[in-house]
């Protein structure tokens, strides 16, 4: 079993950029967001339940889920967001464990946006948090998802505060948009995690 490093942080904090830097060092990446998209593909059990719950209105012309419409609904309705989380969380977690068990590398980076909110930190050997200024987070989110400021703020405030999130961190990467700094931080942590794996496995 590889050493599991959970990478988390607020929405649009730069988790994907950091995961890519680890991937360039040959580290396997297990991404909960990627798995989340896989488990709701057309014909899956989760897909059928989502369509049944939200009706055919939630579909695009090609019958795939309309993710932007779904996002609009769940970030304006706590009850619907909770329903969707309760449906998808166990399925995503099961697939995650299968993928991690298949890895032969010394350690894996497990990207989990809602690590603390879904109480998943205990499944990791180590927690790596990304710390990003909220203003930068907001700007990135508006640009990335092509949404207005109001929805972006709702999406950020639906998660726990940065201050609380950082209390769960074993390691912190400061992401202020400087790629050179990010790369240096990742390279340093890479060596540390290889050492941690060796210590764990005696």
From TrEMBL:
E.C. code: 2.7.1.24
Stretches of the chain forming a coiled coil according to its record: none
GO biological process: coenzyme A biosynthetic process
CDD domains: DPCK (cd02022)
Subcellular location, record wording: Cytoplasm
Gene Ontology CC terms: cytoplasm
Family statement drawn from the similarity comment of this UniProt entry: Belongs to the CoaE family.
Function according to Swiss-Prot or TrEMBL: Catalyzes the phosphorylation of the 3'-hydroxyl group of dephosphocoenzyme A to form coenzyme A.
The protein, known as: Dephospho-CoA kinase
Organism from which the protein derives: Gilliamella apicola
